[in-house]
Amino acid sequence: MDVGPGELMIVLAIVMMLFGAKKLPELARGIGQAKREFEAAARGERDEQPEPVDA
Known about the structure:
This protein is mainly α.
């Protein structure tokens, strides 16, 4: 499913109407921070492999 420039413009216009131009930088910062935290957590879970237990 491809998203073209027309669809992106429509989504951007809706977001601007919902949040207003003054709130967009704050919203973008929040989304970026959430993305970084999610990626860090995903990397941390991959790095923390449980050690084998001898039975």
